[in-house]
């Protein structure tokens, strides 16, 4: 029997396997897609830390896809969107079916709940960089804002550590759990038997099967670092400074500000219904219709706010990549943005406005 739970991203209640039970605080991250250069530093930092062993060759807990054609596993989002079919929004309220509400009752597990999904083939896992740098086309006359006719962008992805994880709902072994202290979703390796129901149900395809152990594994949110007050490896090593970690339900967190106050950071495919906790600042040159399908109906407002930031937003954006410590609280001063750790200690101070260097007239304007 499904429970009715509140999903704030959908603006309504929805069906889920278990009663609503939110953690003490929720792991969350914001990725600014206007800054990502597709360098894959995050990908290799994660790979060299967590998935470098035998049987993990095709495990990329962090990957960076080139949209609109790239995806790992191949076509993961296009396939599920096609299975779900066209679904309506009414303003900010989602009136269509989530993957839980569109499930096939004939495929229920012993938990009594399964989500609409599919199990990718081995071939679909083989090419994490397929279509890398492939855009929608090329315009020899150039492009101009607000929307490019031909476009492409990089989409970095990790596990979303969802509030309503489909992987957790589908696991017949109850091997998947959500940590109360930080909302990180983990797989108990002692209980897992590798049935891959989590892989089938997860709409983002972030649980992955390891043949050498016969179990599924996934991004662990770098919880040993989180427990020490440090941001995840993918966030700390990002050279484009596109990532910021924080607690989405803490009003003092910069992540809470970006998601709930400025509303420039949006969830990935909120219509799936999992209430994902990784958020994205949409790229402002991309087709609005495409972005709305991907991030929901807040795209226009998010891009407008990002394009014309006030002082507070500009200051928070400068905190991205400014420290490898978790910023629990921030303060905007006259010329600087300041970040503080859980104990209230200052961990970073950065200028809000970057200096502009003008070459003297007797120097050529070259590098």
TrEMBL record:
Principal location listed in the UniProt entry: other
Q: Where is the 4Fe-4S ferredoxin-type domain?
A: 27-55, 183-212
Name the Pfam families for this protein: Fer4_11
Q: Which SUPFAM superfamilies has this protein been placed in?
A: 4Fe-4S ferredoxins
Swiss-Prot/TrEMBL cofactor(s): [3Fe-4S] cluster; [4Fe-4S] cluster
Name the top EC class.
oxidoreductase
Instruction: Print the keywords alphabetically.
Output: 4Fe-4S, Electron transport, Iron, Iron-sulfur, Metal-binding, Oxidoreductase, Repeat, Transport
Q: Where in the cell is it found?
A: Cell envelope
| Presence of the UniProt keyword 4Fe-4S in the record | yes
**Enzyme Commission numbers on file:** 1.7.99.4
Q: Which InterPro entries match?
A: 4Fe4S_Fe-S-bd
Gene Ontology molecular function: any one: oxidoreductase activity
Q: Note the PANTHER family from the entry.
A: NITRATE REDUCTASE BETA SUBUNIT (PTHR43518), RESPIRATORY NITRATE REDUCTASE 1 BETA CHAIN (PTHR43518:SF1)
Q: What is this protein called?
A: Nitrate reductase beta subunit
Where does this protein come from, organism-wise? Answer: Symbiobacterium terraclitae
């Amino acid at each position: 029997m499904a429970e009715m739970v509140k999903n704030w991203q959908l603006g309504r209640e929805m069906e889920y396997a278990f009663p609503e039970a939110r953690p003490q605080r929720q792991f969350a991250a914001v990725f600014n897609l206007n800054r990502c250069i597709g360098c894959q530093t995050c990908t290799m930092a994660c790979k060299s830390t967590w998935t470098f062993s035998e049987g993990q060759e095709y495990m990329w807990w962090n990957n960076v896809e080139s949209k609109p054609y790239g995806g790992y596993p191949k076509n993961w989002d296009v396939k599920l969107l096609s299975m779900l079919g066209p679904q309506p929004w009414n303003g900010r309220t989602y009136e269509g079916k989530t993957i839980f509400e569109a499930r096939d009752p004939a495929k229920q597990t012993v938990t009594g709940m399964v989500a609409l999904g599919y199990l990718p083939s081995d071939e679909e896992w083989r090419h994490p960089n397929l279509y890398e740098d492939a855009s929608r086309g090329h315009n020899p006359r150039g492009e101009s804002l607000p929307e490019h006719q031909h476009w492409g962008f990089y989409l970095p992805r990790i596990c979303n550590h969802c509030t309503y994880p489909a992987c957790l709902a589908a696991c017949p072994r109850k091997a998947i759990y959500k940590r109360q202290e930080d909302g990180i979703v983990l797989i108990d390796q002692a209980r897992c038997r590798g049935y891959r129901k989590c892989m089938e149900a997860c709409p983002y395809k972030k649980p992955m099967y390891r043949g050498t152990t016969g179990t599924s594994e996934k991004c662990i949110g770098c919880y040993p670092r989180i427990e020490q007050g440090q941001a995840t490896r993918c966030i700390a090593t990002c050279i484009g400074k596109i990532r910021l970690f924080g607690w989405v339900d803490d009003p003092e967190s910069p992540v809470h500000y970006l998601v709930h106050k400025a509303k420039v950071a949006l969830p990935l495919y909120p219509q799936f219904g999992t209430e994902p906790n990784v958020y994205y600042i949409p790229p402002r040159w991309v087709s609005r219709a495409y972005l709305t399908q991907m991030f929901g109906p807040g795209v226009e407002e998010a891009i407008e706010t990002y394009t014309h930031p006030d002082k507070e937003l500009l200051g928070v954006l400068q905190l991205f990549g400014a420290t490898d410590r978790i910023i629990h609280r921030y303060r905007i001063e006259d010329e600087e943005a300041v970040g503080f750790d859980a104990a209230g200690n200052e961990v970073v101070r950065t200028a809000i406005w970057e200096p502009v260097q003008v070459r003297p007239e007797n120097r050529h304007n070259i590098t």
